[in-house]
Write a structure and sequence with these properties.
Layout (H helix, E strand, L loop, with lengths): L1 H7 L6 E6 L4 H10 L1 H7 L10 E6 L2 E2 H4 L2 H23 L4 E5 L7 H10 L4 E5 L15 E4 L2 E4 L3
Parallel strand pairs: 4-5
Antiparallel strand pairs: 1-2, 2-3, 6-7
Length: about 150
């Protein structure tokens, strides 16, 4: 994950992922007991591992709170690419990667990097504007207009 993020940012950003548990193991039983009546009324448990979270820190800044939209989207893209590479490595099978409207926000260098990273995978990329695709690559291009999917150019 960290190497992919560093490559995508051109070496300008360092990503740190910090696990943030909802409650300590020592406090878990006590908090369950304290919240039991309310949780039973709501039919849900308000404490526990399902409430755990991760902080994504870029160059010392928690991007969930203070990061730009581009930093948050880039980090989400990095996680998706890392997941695809991990799957490929562990399963010895190429995953199908779905990238929904991410190319329009990337410059040509970053687009090339993404294509290089998924070169051996089946990839579906959606775009709102064809001009968002700055780097020509192999593969079929389709256009969706008014619910009709057609090969591009027809």
């Amino acid at each position: 994950i960290y190497e992919i993020h560093k490559r995508l940012s051109g070496g300008k950003e360092e990503l740190v992922i910090k696990y943030e548990p909802d409650t300590s193991v020592e406090d878990f039983e006590n908090k369950l007991f304290i919240n039991m009546d309310r949780d039973m009324k709501l039919k849900m448990t308000s404490v526990g591992p399902h409430r755990d979270d991760f902080a994504f820190i870029v160059n010392g800044i928690d991007i969930r709170k203070f990061g730009s939209q581009g930093q948050r989207k880039s980090t989400a893209l990095v996680l998706k690419l890392a997941q695809a590479h991990l799957y490929n490595e562990k399963m010895q099978r190429s995953p199908v990667v779905l990238l929904d409207d991410v190319m329009g926000e990337l410059d040509e260098r970053r687009q090339r990097l993404i294509y290089d990273m998924v070169a051996d995978m089946q990839v579906f990329i959606t775009l709102c504007h064809p001009s968002s695709l700055r780097v020509a690559q192999k593969g079929a291009v389709f256009r969706m207009e008014q619910g009709v999917l057609t090969p591009d150019g027809q």
